[in-house]
Amino acid sequence: MNRTRIRERLKDVELLICDVDGTLRKCTVKGQNTPHRPGEWELMPHIRETFLLIDWTRMQIAVATNQPDVSEGKVSLRMARALIHDALDEAGVPSGRRHLEICPHPKDADCVCAKPRPGMFVRLLDSARVTPGRALAIGNAAIDRRAAKRADVRYMDMNEFFGQKKAIGAVKRITEAVTPA
User: Fold this and answer.
1) What pLDDT, on a 0 to 100 scale, did the predictor assign at position 171?
2) Going from the N-terminus, what domains does the chain have, and what CATH number goes with each?
């Protein structure tokens, strides 16, 4: 990834809305999708290198994440929040440029915030004072793509954005196949 390519991708963008698990970080505990305590995660490849190329004086970052383990008592909301901020710290994102929305509800809850519903995206856009046309969502799953579409925010798969060539074609085909119009 180079600075020119990042500037090109972010030319009209003021807010990056990212998923966290599987996009910015991965859990290192076998059988667990999300970390529950420090030391249970690592950044995904190319995250720090890419974020170091971003001009954070004009860019903000937002994280929109479903964290059902909170409702199951596996991790507290406070710890989930702290672990996300730890990942953003490690990625080199300045603390004053961050917005965070967590859906702590169970996977089957009928809440307004859980992706693929656009609730978290709408609140993040409002919090950052950015219009949907000036935002870019980055994720790794069909629910990320659907939430972005429902919030009228452009979407880019994390493999494409962070320059992870491996499996880009397969991910795109699968995501597009399961994403309703």
Assistant:
1) 46
2) 3-178 (3.40.50.1000)
Instruction: Tell me if 136 sits within 8 A of 13, measured CB to CB.
Output: yes
The answer to whether 97 and 59 are in contact (CB under 8 A) is yes
Q: Angle CA(103)–CA(48)–CA(147) in degrees, nearest 5?
A: 30
Report the pLDDT value the prediction gives residue 177, as an integer from 0 to 100. Answer: 58
Write the pLDDT tens digit of every residue in 31-81.
999 999 999 999 999 999 999 999 999 999 999 999 999 999 999 999 999
Judged on CB neighbours under 10 Å (0-12, 13-18, 19+), 81 is middle
Q: Does residue 168 carry a pLDDT above 50?
A: no
